[in-house]
Design goal:
The protein is α+β, with helices and mostly antiparallel strands. It has a single domain (3-84), classed as Alpha-Beta Plaits. The chain is 30% helix and 38% strand. The N and C termini lie far apart (60 Å). It contains 2 helices and 5 strands; from the N terminus they run βββαββα. Strands 1, 2, 3, 4 and 5 form a 5-stranded antiparallel β-sheet that branches.
Length: 86
């Protein structure tokens, strides 16, 4: 069974996976990356989060990458309404 490595890029900071995990195939690795990226999106109460999980085998090239851009946009009408109620 292949050994897959999951490198993380979170808001510009990179973390290289040096341990890896043995999985049946790339499809199982893809599902794992989706679970990881979902957890990263829920991880903090922020208005913006830009995350990427890249999958590779050993020192080989990236086989697959899963990205998430989370952005909360406050709309002018809502901001105005909140300031009027204070």
């Amino acid at each position: 069974m292949p050994q897959y490595y999951f490198d993380h890029d979170i808001d510009g900071a990179s973390v290289r996976d040096d341990e890896g995990v043995t999985l049946d195939d790339l499809e199982e690795a893809r599902r794992s990356a989706l679970d990881m990226i979902t957890a990263l999106g829920r991880g903090k109460d922020e208005d913006r989060r830009d995350s990427r999980v890249s999958i590779r085998e050993g020192d080989g090239p990236v086989l697959l990458a899963v990205s998430l851009l989370l952005r909360v946009e406050r709309m002018a009408a809502l901001v105005r309404a909140e300031s009027l109620s204070v």
